[in-house]
Design goal:
elongated; Sulfite Oxidase, Chain A, domain 2; five-stranded antiparallel beta sheet; 20 strands; five-stranded mixed beta sheet; 25% strand; 2 domains; Immunoglobulin-like
């Protein structure tokens, strides 16, 4: 199937004098649409945001559309750490282990230890393996000593391959894993790295993932490092969020960012050795670009403006637009147009960077060691940032009573419309989302 390209500029509807005698689908062509944003952060045009992301961001626009301004005011960029969605896995459920048990299984700062060894089933060589037996496993105090020199932080969304919405948008802090690996004196025959966390001391419950060794030891320009993470939104990890230390692998879904990290294995095995791959998932798939709703009214009044908001996950292919369409619920999409390429899509407003990044951060300010800030200008290197989210908003009105489906989608930086170019399941959810609206007279 060919990639779906943005055709929103090609569809021009002729104005109708009135709605008498026409279908609701035809009437939707006359829906009043007005999108606007709020000036969260005054950014000179072309410095952080390209002009398309600045259009309409003025106090005048807010005065003209107070309903939308109110909806935007309720958005918070960073998900509070306590509100991150937590995957319930294990028997007993690992995030719910009682606090009094954590010291005995090495899941407190005082008892945490990380082993780094060579794969006993391959010929990989390590000159200085970190093991509990040799009394040189990495401890929390050793990690914090390294953090004094090597700590970095970056913004990144956390999504599950098969979950409909992101688990949360976070500010992650840690030290690049390579800084620790080099201390183990890696030698020959190392092609891949495998990592696992605590799982009830039951081999059948081990959850592990892996990466090519080059992804840990180097990044292409602009890429973020794999880190041993110990803070989320400036706070040390809770046990539920993977504390005291978890791995964080940017650019991928959360199955790679192993919680309760306790063991790393260097191997000459070139194949992925991931629990999630064994469960019939594509673990090599990078984060996809897609749009989701945050708040949509269930009922609206005809001929009255209403606002709705959402987030867009910005994946490998970037983001150029967020769009929405409103269709009668009782008229299903054309069977020959499964991805709604021919729907009457309208552009939503993509919001600029917030002045207040979230309630977890002191004063809502980002830390000085954020990797996505240009050190020369003190500004974000780009907007939107890859592998993060942006908020979007729009307002519209419906003229004819009835039940409707409100849908949203993204257009990536290549001009390809969601869910293309990778609409497959088990590689990241990016189906076009729909919200139900009832319009009453």
């Amino acid at each position: 199937m060919a990639e779906l390209k943005d055709n929103s500029r090609k569809r021009i509807s002729k104005p109708l004098k009135d709605n008498e005698g026409i279908s609701r689908r035809e009437a939707l062509k006359t829906i009043g649409v007005m999108s606007a944003g709020i000036s969260f952060l005054k950014i000179p045009e072309n410095e952080i945001c390209p002009p398309a992301f600045n259009a309409g961001l003025s106090s005048d626009a807010l005065r003209q559309d107070p309903i939308l301004a109110e909806a935007i005011s309720q958005l918070e960029y960073l998900t509070p750490a306590k509100k991150f969605i937590v995957q319930r896995r294990g028997n007993p459920v690992l995030p719910e282990l009682p606090d009094e048990l954590l010291p005995s299984i090495g899941l407190t700062q005082e008892t945490w230890k990380l082993e780094i060894i060579s794969d006993p089933e391959s010929d990989s060589e390590l000159g200085n393996p970190f093991t509990i037996e040799n009394n040189n496993a990495l401890t929390w105090s050793g990690l914090m000593k390294m953090a004094e020199k090597h700590a970095v932080s970056y913004l990144h969304v956390l999504s599950c391959t098969n979950a409909p919405k992101p688990y949360g948008m976070g500010l992650w802090e840690g030290i690049p894993l390579r800084e620790v690996l080099w201390q183990t004196k890696p030698g020959r025959n190392i092609r891949r790295i495998r990592f696992s966390g605590y799982h009830n001391n039951d081999p059948k419950q081990i959850f592990q993932s892996s990466l090519p060794i080059n992804r840990v030891l180097e990044e292409i320009p602009g890429e973020l490092p794999v880190i041993l993470a110990y803070k989320l939104n400036g706070q040390y990890f809770s046990h539920a969020n993977g504390g005291p230390v978890r791995l964080f692998v940017p650019g991928f879904y959360g199955n790679r960012s192993i919680k309760w990290l306790q063991k790393i294995v260097l191997t000459n095995n070139h194949q992925a050795n991931d629990t999630y791959a064994d469960w019939n998932n594509d673990v090599e798939s990078p984060v996809k670009t897609c749009a989701k709703f945050i708040k949509v009214p269930a009922e609206v009044r005809t001929n009255q403006m209403f606002a709705f908001t959402g987030m867009a996950q910005v994946g490998l292919l970037g983001l150029s637009k967020v769009q929405y369409c409103i269709m009668p619920a009782d008229e299903p999409p054309d069977a020959n147009d499964p991805y709604l390429a021919l729907a009457d899509w309208r552009d939503a407003m993509i919001l600029p960077p917030p002045a207040n990044w979230g309630s977890d951060l002191p004063g809502g300010k980002l830390p000085g060691n954020l990797m996505q800030i240009d050190r020369k200008t003190g500004k974000l290197v780009s907007w939107p940032l890859p592998n993060t989210i942006v908020h979007w908003a729009a307002s519209a009105k419906i003229d004819i009573p009835g039940k409707y489906d409100l849908r949203c989608r993204t257009i990536d930086a290549n001009g390809t419309a969601q869910p293309m170019p990778r609409p497959f399941g088990r590689s990241g959810v990016n189906a076009i989302e729909a919200a139900k609206i009832t319009a009453n007279s």
